[in-house]
Amino acid sequence: MSGSDIFPLGPVDQVPDGQVRRFEVGGRAVAVIRIGDDFYALGDTCSHADYSLSEGYLWPEEGKLECPRHGSRFSLETGEPDSLPATRPVPTYRVELRDGELFLVLDSGDPGGGEATAATTANNNNNTTTTTDDTTAEGQQR
Question: Long-range contact list for 137-142, CB < 8 A, 24+ apart?
Answer without folding.
Answer: 137/7, 137/8, 137/9, 137/23, 137/24, 137/25, 137/26, 137/104, 138/8, 138/10, 139/9, 139/10, 139/11, 139/14
